[in-house]
Design a protein that fits this description.
24% of the residues lie in helices and 48% in strands. It contains 3 helices and 6 strands, in the order H-H-E-E-H-E-E-E-E. The chain has helices at residues 4-17, 21-26, 45-52; strands at 28-36, 41-43, 60-71, 74-84, 90-101, 109-118. By secondary structure, it is α+β, with helices and mostly antiparallel strands. The model has no long low-confidence stretch (mean pLDDT 94). It starts with a helix and ends with a strand. This is Nuclear transport factor 2 family protein.
């Protein structure tokens, strides 16, 4: 049985593969910092919202979560995302996201560190 925070992080990751930007934005603080290692760092909910606008490009995604670990105000989710574009080309990505919440109970995500590698 998942804890409330584990369920929260699972639903957050599922929102990405479903291109549910409303759910994503409801789950983060106004001053969210999202560091994508080897890529960009997004700071603030407005910047995040802007980056999500081009998210739904017609690709189909499947999410396989391998580990979902939480403790206090922190969580880690890793797994694989399978992507199929409109022309049928498939790509696969291994990911690990580290989350920090602003508070333990009913918290929102204030920081994300993401590691993503195409496999």
């Amino acid at each position: 049985m998942e804890t409330k925070n584990q369920q929260f992080f699972r639903e957050f990751n599922e929102a990405f593969v479903k291109a549910n930007s409303e759910k994503i934005l409801q789950s983060v603080t106004e001053d969210i910092v999202w560091r994508m290692v080897g890529n960009d760092t997004l700071k603030g909910i407005d910047v995040l919202e802007e980056s999500l606008e081009g998210m739904d490009k017609g690709n189909q995604f499947e999410l396989d979560i391998e580990h979902l670990i939480t403790h206090g105000k922190e969580g880690v989710v890793n797994g694989i995302i399978h992507s199929t574009d409109r022309s049928g080309v498939q790509r696969h990505y291994s990911f690990c996201d580290i989350y920090k919440l602003n508070k333990h109970k009913d918290g929102k995500i204030k920081e994300i560190i993401s590691y993503v590698v195409e496999i």
